[in-house]
Amino acid sequence: MLKHWQGHRRLTRRVIEAFPEDELFSFSVGSMRPFGVLAMELISMGAPMVRGIVTGDWDSGTREPRPRQEVLRLWDEGTIEINDLWPQIAPERFEQTITAFGQFEGIVHDLILYVIDNEIHHRAQGYVYLRALGTPPPPFYERH
Amino acid sequence: MLKHWQGHRRLTRRVIEAFPEDELFSFSVGSMRPFGVLAMELISMGAPMVRGIVTGDWDSGTREPRPRQEVLRLWDEGTIEINDLWPQIAPERFEQTITAFGQFEGIVHDLILYVIDNEIHHRAQGYVYLRALGTPPPPFYERH
Predict the structure, then answer these.
(1) CA-to-CA distance for A48 and A56, rounded, in angstroms?
(2) What phi and psi values does residue A134 have, to the nearest 5 degrees?
(3) What average pLDDT does range A63-83 have in this prediction?
(4) Which of A81, A88, A108, B69 could make a disulfide contact with A47, Cβ separation 3.0–4.6 Å?
(5) Average per-residue pLDDT for chain A
(6) Residue A98 forms beta bridges with which residues?
């Protein structure tokens, strides 16, 4: 599951990287949120979800707009934190029911899956924005 | 995995259903494929993937445009076929390496996951199209 997720995270990072800096927190289609806002949402859900599962600390951090390089830096920090914390999730922990971030009740396995699905969902929004901006997005199937 | 996928399939069905009939195979953003074309791709990958895994028959069916009701009918047929065939996938089968549709080599588990991820990805494109058309898409978190 970690390997699968980190493959997706590498692709999402490429989409953030491909996004024109001046459009990251301004461009949108159909009055939806700009991709930078979505990327900050993903950052506030990924590592914080794993941290919460392992430590019980449910702080989700900031979602304020910032330069693309800063978004990428936070992304990379999250990647390292997820890799570091993951081995501390015991197999039986994945089956336990918890309340994430004080409001989302669910089985640990399903909560992590929701974070991954949400990342795929919002990243795809980024694909459409990139196409609308005339920037080719990275191939969906490349995860290395 | 089946339960998770069928939750996603219920949501994707709602997005097809919400799409205006006259825009299904024509509307797009950034020169991407219309949502009807994407829905037909998903139909040609979902049940056919499971059928191939179980029977070795890798026919992926047609992708021709058709009325929304026909797309939904094919979707529902796929849902039933997936449910019927799934119990025939033995636990050890999920770990085997196969070549799907004569061209995609991978472990069965990963191939099914790819089909699910691809569905989330293209459905999210449909979300943006719907928003651009002024039609509110169904909530992402509702899977019942």
Answers:
(1) 10
(2) 80, 15
(3) 98
(4) A81
(5) 97
(6) A106
Residues of A in contact with B113 (CB under 8 A): 4
Query: The tokens of B142 are what?
Result: 């509702």
Rounded to the nearest integer, the mean pLDDT of chain B is: 97
Residue B99, beta-bridge partner list: B105
Q: Which residue of B has its CA nearest to A135?
A: B30
Residue with token string 């070795």: B56
ipTM of the complex: 0.96
* C-alpha to C-alpha distance for A51 and B141, rounded to whole angstroms: 22
Alpha-carbon gap: A9 to the closest alpha carbon of chain B (Å): 13
A110 interaction partners in chain B (CB closer than 8 Å)? 4
B26 touches chain A (CB under 8 A): no
Distance from CA of A45 to the nearest CA of B (A): 15
Nearest 5°: the CA angle A71, A76, A79 is: 130
